[in-house]
Specification:
It contains ten helices and seven strands. It is α+β, with helices and mostly antiparallel strands. Helix 1 packs across helix 2, helix 6 packs across helix 8 and helix 7 crosses helix 8. The two termini are 26 Å apart.
């Protein structure tokens, strides 16, 4: 899956403010150059210093969307040095090229308009490297300012999402038994345990333990997320109860990318995300006579990683026997949006065998 680019949102009012600031900065720098000229015996005409600096500042203002795009799409160095350097080196090369071209064109026009003759850019062999050096400093300073502003804005948005998420989580806690472990599931689980308790006491003990752990997690969990390792352990208990009920009609296969480089076990996921997806797959196919296979996958890809649950059932297009409320995909999508904004996605589709496939994309956290 290709990575989605993020684009800056610039209002006309904000653009005018930036343009005014750049013009003022150009006038300020032009006055400094003019004062330096006045200290000499032949200061020359007054206009050129202001033309030089104002045109340079205007060219920078036109290139600010490029800078903002680079900052938004380049991950932190801890997440991906290759993408970080690639984006910024490409953006800097484009920045200095366009900056010199626009600045030179504006100066030619201003000189002609004010009757100052032809603008002399200088010897390109020396002038272009000099401009590139100055632009490197300008790029670094602008990058620092935009990065700080973006970090501050993200922190503010995170605080707002956290406040909104707190209310959502309180409601989710009240629905933990009616949504994540609704009475219908509890009824079936207890019936299943009752049916095996006289035949296999050790298995009965394990199933009761699994059910107790599921109830405890649903009632006592206060944080919105936990690690994938914890989510997997919780989901395995849930699957054990489903397998006890459906027997050979249900097969669940795990395929989580292992290794320190991927580090998926330590990545954080919304609580009960996998359980919700597995329950959804089973619930919508429980009336089928053919065996159902559910496949759970986890993969790292650049600055993001994905969790995927795919089944061999009827898919999303066909009618299913599932009825009643529940957390489901809609609430999981809302929780993802509250936790991560547009950095997370929930994608529904079809598997290769016609069943349902749900893919959750999450931002990848740097290993601590």
């Amino acid at each position: 899956m290709s990575l989605r680019w993020r684009w800056p949102r610039l209002s006309a009012r904000r653009a005018l403010k930036v343009l005014g600031f750049c013009v003022a900065l150009g006038v300020w720098q032009g006055s400094a150059v003019r004062l330096s000229q006045l200290s000499r015996r032949d200061p020359g005409p007054w206009a050129p210093p202001f033309i030089w600096e104002v045109t340079s500042a205007l060219a920078v203002a036109l290139l600010l969307p490029l800078m903002i795009t680079a900052v938004l799409n380049a991950p932190g160095p801890r997440v991906g040095w290759g993408r970080f350097l690639g984006i910024h080196l490409g953006a800097y090369a484009l920045f200095t090229t366009v900056h010199v071209a626009v600045m030179t064109a504006l100066r030619h026009g201003a000189y002609a308009l004010l009757g100052l003759g032809a603008y002399d850019f200088g010897e390109p062999t020396y002038q272009l490297p000099m401009e590139a050096q100055k632009d490197l400093i300008s790029y670094a300073l602008i990058f620092a300012v935009i990065s700080l502003q973006a970090a501050w804005r993200e922190r503010q948005e995170r605080a707002l999402r956290a406040a909104s998420l707190e209310g959502e989580l309180r409601a989710a806690q009240l629905q933990s038994l009616t949504g994540q472990l609704h009475p219908h599931f509890l009824f079936n689980a207890l019936n299943t345990i009752s049916s095996v308790m006289y035949e296999d006491l050790p298995r009965t003990d394990r199933l009761l333990s699994d059910l107790g752990q599921l109830l405890r997690a649903s009632l006592e969990r206060t944080e919105p997320t936990w690690t994938l390792g914890e989510e997997r352990l919780h989901t395995e208990r849930f699957i054990a109860l489903l397998t006890a009920r459906f027997g050979d009609r249900l097969t669940v296969r795990w395929d989580i990318e292992a290794g320190a480089e991927a580090g998926l076990e330590a990545q954080r996921v919304p609580c009960f995300a996998l359980q919700t997806l597995v329950e959804n797959a089973v619930k919508h196919n429980q009336d089928l006579r053919a065996p159902l296979e559910v496949r759970i996958r986890g993969r790292a890809q650049g600055p993001r990683w994905m969790l995927e649950v795919e089944d061999t059932g009827r898919g999303f297009g066909a009618a299913s026997p599932a009825a009643g409320p529940g957390v489901g995909l809609a609430q999981l999508g809302r929780v993802l949006a509250l936790l991560h904004g547009d950095r997370a996605d929930l994608v529904r589709g079809a598997g290769p065998e016609g069943g349902a496939r749900v893919t959750v994309w999450l931002p990848r956290e740097a290993s601590s």
